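hey so i finally got around to running both of the ones u sent me last week. sorry it took forever, my laptop kept dying halfway thru and i had to restart like 3 times lol. anyway pasting them below in the order u listed, first the sequence line then the structure token line for each. didnt double check formatting much so if smth looks off just lmk and ill redo it

first one:
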Amino acid sequence: MTLAVIGFGSNLGNGPHLVQSAWTRFSLEPKIAPLQLSALYVTEAVGMVSSSLFTNAVGLIDTDLDPSELLHLLLQVEREYGRVRDTDEEGYQDRFLDLDLLYFGEIVCQLPDLILPHPHIASRLFVLAPLAQLLPDFNDPVSGQTAEQMYQLLLSRIEKGDLPAQHISRLA
């Protein structure tokens, strides 16, 4: 079994329900053992324009799937939850469910359809806050930094004005 880290996001519909439901959905998969889901966080859109807030979380699973098989499953689950990818639209789009494969063990790869670790982890509070909550000592295989170090560095860069503000709050 390999530890994989999945990012969950939703900004259409009932985000908290959709994220929790998608998390539960993974327990139906024979080659996946869901381990832990972070707290839910509410965030403004990052990298896109949207009037809807996002619900975000990070989930830890053990899996016997390989990275490509897991990615295929994540895309399938997104579709089950109503995700439509409009290829005529540029950039990110509002979505009922977004599932990102953030880490797969310590694998580092750059394929046409899969980059591991996910290339935007270090710049997104909605990933680093829940990741640091679950696995503060987890080492990023590229930077060598822990999740907590990456989180604190991103907070510092935002505070200094090096990056735009990212508003985030943890749901109770």
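and the second one:
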Amino acid sequence: MINILDCSFCAALFLPHEKSALVKALFAKFADDDELAVPVQFWDEMTGLLLSALARNRLKHADALEINRLLSMYHLTTEVSFAGDYTGQLLDLAGLYGLNAGEAAYLELAIRKKGKLGTLSGKLKAACIKAGIETLL
């Protein structure tokens, strides 16, 4: 089984969120043969989130480095190959479901890989439902 994870979903592992316990429980249930995948911009988003938490004094630099180390233990597959007209596909998905480019990239990956999407974004979850993509929560 392939699971596509977005930044909001993974951030709930280490930043307080109302669904943090649910996300942690799902991570604990992932089997060794479950593939966990992210689009390439995930890492930029995660870095931005960590920088924001640092700026707000919610984390210390050592904490941010530890979070990054812990994330690497999940062996997230970073999707860097793009099939066909990737930009065109993102434009189509964004227009169809009212998403931004980043959200469309997660949806495109879930559609292309026929995977479930882990997100805490209500807008992205609604787009998944309309597109027939299962979500983890």
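quick thing i noticed on the 2nd:
The chain has a mean pLDDT of 92.
anyway thats it, ttyl
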